[in-house]
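Inputs:
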Amino acid sequence: MEPRPKLLSLLTALSLFLFLAALTVIFVYAPLEARMNYVQKVFYIHISTAWVGMLGFLAAAAAGIAFLVTKNLQWDIVELAAVEISLVFFLVAIITGSIWAKPSWGTWWTWDARLTTAAILELIYLAYLLLRQGIEDPERRARFGAVYTLVGGLSVPVTFLSIRLWQTIHPAIIGTASAQAQGGFAMAPAMLHTMFFALGTFSVIFITLLWHRIRLGRLAHHLEQRRLQDAE
Amino acid sequence: MTPARKPPTDRRSPGSSRPGFGRAILAVLWKDLAAEMRSRELLSAMLVFALLVILIFNFAIELAPFLRLTVTPGVLWVTLTFAGTLGLNRSMAVEKDRGCLDGLLLAPVDRAAIFFGKMLANLVFMLLVAVILLPFYSLLYNLNLFNPGLLLVILLGSLGYVAVGTLLASMAVQARTRDMLLPILLFPVIVPVLLAAVRASGGFLQTAPFEQIRPWLNLLIGYDAIFLAVAYMLFDAIVEE
Amino acid sequence: MIPFEISIKYLIAGYAAAFLILGLYVASLLIRWHSLKRDLETLEKLQSK
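Outputs:
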């Protein structure tokens, strides 16, 4: 297993630095929001982690297609890494979103399109992991994983649009909390700067974590190959 | 493992450049239907299960007369969803256990034809269950479910369900956790179908203006078109060896 | 404006949840890495015999 590349070590250090810098910017530079006071600062983490979740989602779909086209198992490793990271970050996004929503809108959860779709996506990811767990042949596992990534991935935007459609046709059904929940808050320029800084930071964190997770995947792959060779 | 290479086909118009395609689909379909007509295991299991689910709903949800119309579409579609899973699982498991799938794959037919044949068989089974379920439900709850709009929704919804379901079932059946895996894989992906089917069914039953129902029908048609195409393209990757 | 005491509680809860989950994930990556490394060494030792 190759030693950790210097670039990765640099990225890791950069990620840590940016993370601390972002926290400083959030708590020192960004102004307090008029209505929500301190709890609004959770929003920066909520959006940033949702953003990373999205990046992971897209990376997984791209890796799935790449695998089906090239049949190279390295893409399968990328796909699994991307799914795992997306799963974790969307989880954080959902939870921080919920914690932010409670004091702002008075409810932990609304069945609005974004939140519901995020929850369904988490279930798809878990299903993906269960599918992989049930298949022992690495090549078949990779193929099936890629197929489900594509089917699941394609269904997500369709699901999102369906729920949106439902909301526009029956706005009252989802509950008054959701109706209020459509309103956000106006972002002062300083808040926007903070938001972009946070997004940039987390993008770097995404790449770093993805790279680390891919290395982990390759180690696991290497181990599995050795074990299979042994068994022959 | 070298994947079997099949000759390039014109994917845009199956049946026109390969005259065997349509016939292959019908052959696979007929094989499944004939097998089922002889044993009737699958249908009876799905049917009994569906009736039991309706029974359970009677105790679980307040189906008082004035609530029935609003709750019926949901109850119907949950029932169909679960019964459909049974059918999909069995239909695929039979292939695998009897080794029929390998035999089919050795035959000189386009893989996609196998997929469509299987899918159509699953669709027929699901529609049969629905067709028998509706009069029962109508009788038990004193509702008239013989609504052409409702039947259309059942057709469109079942089509989408079965397209994705057949694809996913062909994967699930090869995993260790076979029976439990299919619903886990299928349900999150089928949400748009469920949502649109329940809304459209409700709309037709409550004789809502067509303008309100149309977006849901469009969604169903769109989903069916997209996922039929996707399933057609991806089935190859599943049976590749 | 939301009162300070309430707002700060949710703020802490939010950041705590985020750091906890992310921290656990990074920790799991490290643990899995070391465990795989160990397994690989054991396997190599066995195979060289």
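Remarks. The CA atoms of residues 66 and 72 of chain A lie 8 Å apart. The interface with chain C takes residues 1, 34-39, 41-42, 45-46, 49, 88, 91-92, 95-96, 99-100, 102-104, 209, 212-213, 215-216, 219-220, 222-223, 226-227, 230 of chain A (CB under 8 Å).
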